[in-house]
Amino acid sequence: MSFPAYKGCCKDAVKGEDMYEQGWLEHWSEQFQSPFYVLDDKRLVDNYQRMERAFSSRYDRLIIAYSYKTNYLPHLCRKLHELGAYAEVVSRLEYDLAQSFGVQPKQIVFNGPLKREEDIILALDGEAIVNLDSFSEIPSVIRYAKRHGQKEVKIGLRVNFDLSVNGESPLQNGYEVSRFGFCVENGNFERAIRELSQSPNIRVVGLHGHFSTNRSLGVYEQITQELCFLAREYLKGSLEYIDVGGGMYGELPASFGNKIAPSYEDYAEMITAVMKKELLPYGLHPVLIVEPGISLVADAVHFACRVVDVKENRGVRFVLVDGSVHNVKPTMHKHPLPVELITAREDDHDPVGTYHVVGYTCMEKDYLVENGRGRLPQPGDFLVFGHVGAYTIVFQPPFIQARPPIIAFGPRGVVVAREKETLDQFCPEPSYQFTPFRE
Ligand SMILES: *Cc1c(COP(=O)(O)O)cnc(C)c1O
Question: pLDDT tens for residues 116-127?
Fold first, then answer.
């Protein structure tokens, strides 16, 4: 790996020009601090619009529900809602967050393994799209339906089925069996439908099939096919939507190796072709729901940090920066991130070598770059990491340092999307209310 091979991670989404130069980064690190994140609004909008076109040009009934947990930065969610995205939430807290951004309950898809009765009541009252995950949720829905005898209560089910091909599971981390949803093979799915249909005013209207997989086209073909098959078999008179979940790839950086990821168009073609073939001839024309997270936001966020020191310990070179691996890949995934060296120095004369880029924490494993090769960074230079929009900003404990500020870079200028944290935000003091033990 060498830095030149990584170059181009931070190109303007429209003009294709390099986005960063030393002076600009210098300015913003003086305004706030270094390190900081940059959200590229144009890239975000472009991703959304391309995905929307890819699907809606092939299938006319579409909902794109953005997966909040991937990155619920208010600026980012609001931008996607302006473009027409629904909110896909997996907790009551995220549900409330979506509402606080002005999203109508009808435009919320409520998933996730933990929904309490009060959450289910709230969502059904608001007519959100609710997908149940396990049997413990069913009594809440039945009680709700009983209390609202005049109301048609619509519900969806998350489905679980075997995706392995020739004994090989496509699930992430090598899991053989997913923990989510109602299992088809052991009859649980059928039982759930039966239990719900005991209530005359409950209708199972949708099926949800999100899986964390290798993101291949073949897997989407399998998922869509199985959902369509189950819909025909069990929901013929009531089907309103097929929800294939998220888990697609966006554009991959060169640093991830020469992996060719399917494009939005490829996914859209595969999924909608199956829908058209397996449902339309049977008189079924449901809404297609997709729940993208990573594929919309990963490449829309960059992280800028500053080189503080370069040292050598017994022949091994360490470049210390004021950021941490927690800022760029808190999930500790194995892929080397794209990174650019931004410096005001002329090239050519710098020494070239091998080095690790390490962060501010006291942990040995705090590596932002392992075995980088190329032009040696110098104190005062900036490193800008690309592809850090997903499962980073929301996945990061305030550990040792405050969470970095975020600026959003739009076509007409820059807005602060998250301020630099204060000491109290970093570590809030409780009010220390005293409660005596009960007698
Ligand atoms: C996490 C999640 C998504 C988004 O997944 P990505 O891999 O980020 O696209 C969508 N739906 C559900 C139910 C999820 O849990």
Answer: 999 999 999 999
